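Quick note —
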Amino acid sequence: MAVQTKKVAGAKPVLGFMPEDIPPIGAMLSLGFQQVLTMFPATILVAILTKFDVGVTLLASGLGTIIALLVSKRRIPLYYGSSFSYIAVIMSVMSQYDKVCFSAPYAEMPYCPTGVQLAQLGILGTAVVEILVGLLIMRVGKASLDKVLPPIITGSVAIVIGISLAGAALNNAAQNWLVAFITIIVTIAFSVYLQGKGLLGMLPILLGAVAGYIVAIPFGLVHWDVVAQAQWLRVPNITFPAFGDPRAWGAFVSVALIAIATIPESTAHLYQMSLYIDQLAKDMGRKPTSIKNLIGLNLVSDGSDDLINGLLGGCAGTNYGENNSLMAITRNYSVAVLMAAGVIAVLLGFVGKLAGAIQTLPTAVAGGLSIYLFGVIGQQGVALIQSEKVNLFDPKNLAIGAVILVLGIGGSLGLPNGLFPFQIPLVFPNGIPAIVFAAIVGILLNLLFIVLPPSTFGVMERSNLDV
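Predicted structure written out below.
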């Protein structure tokens, strides 16, 4: 039986659900639906931008969340949706391996199965990296990992991921600049002025998309024929990874390397949730969970989610900060509620009319949303460097960050197809994607400084600002 309140003489009862609590069925379903509504806009937008199947993306999000919760032994309450961090490299894979489909307007070709099957291999690669890193942390601790992947690398790669997508966002917005800019302004207004306003405060992307959609109608950008033609129920376009394709290893390595930017994000979410849950436990007079100590297990859970995405054809996943914020507001951390949300997401994946309605979203509206969201990804990299108090007076850090930024951003926007002309047989026969190349060079530079530290030559470390 769930214990959800604490009664103290002369005080109001504390309302909330700890991870192990099971709310009444009505509360569980309504709270679960809120979780789905919160993850829905961003998760679906990733599928739209990368031309993955919307139904499979919802199915994999729900099933992946359930599996991740079970892997964590129902101790870590997190919901998993599509990750924006992988969009740039997924777009690169799709544009190389399914170019005709990926370059076509979304309304004509909303789904590119050939590209998806190759991208799935990369998502499986991400799962392998996350699981191995999680197991390594469980054995040797997080401090050892931080030496190999310090914040200057992970933060700089996050910046590259966001800013390198600028061209794609602007190309989509160019369909109708007025609609795109109205979408941006409204979305930003919702995200700023609805903070702390309950469920509405969690849905700025959805509200911005709806507003942009309405504005786009008079411009003739919305076509409903596809909704009428869609079936109410349909089987999602589940695909299996193209293991036998000769380009498989290139996709595997390209996407998998982006995990170095998402691992810190997932860890930050874990710390955040641990604070909230332990505060509720204190208020309720119950034992704190201290899930912040489960960093390794959390990454193994992340990897299990991506195993589902990679096997079924869903977008690469991550645990969602939006859902974490919703849980903090409602003080509901029940794993049972998140499992209910997972079941609801799975069922939505079979609704054909829903996929048809999503297909009518104008490209200009998606472009407007992307300009804001992709910039936020880049700014999160800045925030990571700032929060970790990285010493940017240190030439080592300056060198690593500078090289990653120029190789990653410059390469993505300036080189043909975003590829460095260094062919590696089997893995990168056409060249190395800029983001991947930047990450590799940054990691190698950092390893050089570990093996041959400046102190070897009598160089004193420069002091940081007193922050």
